[in-house]
């Protein structure tokens, strides 16, 4: 694409990382285990809260990401926070596995749910566009 397309893509990535990094500060205190999922069963001693630049969370996300990237997502999700290569591979895996229309939304935002969170994500994007000189966000 054009230089502007590249700038928009970079600003989108930075905005989502900024937005997601602040989302689950209290994550360890919450239960991110879908106990109905049998394919990626929870380890009862593990917390599946958000980690990584795009907040990988829930057992049904850690399991397949671990398989695809090469770490034990169900029994060692902290690898995402402790291994810088795995940390960034989670972004590439999410990009590879999600459809483009849902690439940068999570289950609480897709399909227009949680409008306040969506607006926060858009604010991050437009601010990065302003800082990086993107003329047409």
TrEMBL record:
Highest taxon of source: Eukaryota
Gene3D superfamilies the UniProt entry points to: 1.10.530.10, Endochitinase, domain 2
Glycoside hydrolase family 19 catalytic domain mapped to chain residues: 26-101
InterPro entries: Glyco_hydro_19_cat, Lysozyme-like_dom_sf
Pfam families noted in UniProt: Glyco_hydro_19
Protein name per Swiss-Prot or TrEMBL: Glycoside hydrolase family 19 catalytic domain-containing protein
């Amino acid at each position: 694409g054009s230089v502007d397309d590249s700038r928009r893509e970079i600003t989108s990535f930075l905005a989502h990382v900024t937005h997601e990094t602040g989302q689950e500060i209290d994550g360890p205190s919450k239960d991110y285990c879908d106990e109905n999922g049998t394919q990626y069963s929870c380890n009862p001693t593990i917390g599946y809260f958000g980690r990584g630049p795009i907040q990988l969370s829930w057992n049904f996300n850690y399991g397949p990401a671990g398989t695809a990237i090469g770490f034990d997502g169900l029994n060692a999700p902290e690898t995402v926070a402790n291994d810088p290569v795995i940390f960034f591979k989670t972004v590439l895996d999410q990009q590879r596995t999600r459809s483009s229309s849902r690439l940068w939304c999570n289950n609480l935002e897709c399909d227009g749910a949680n409008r306040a969170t969506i607006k926060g994500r858009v604010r991050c994007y437009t601010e990065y566009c302003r800082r990086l000189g993107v003329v047409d966000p």
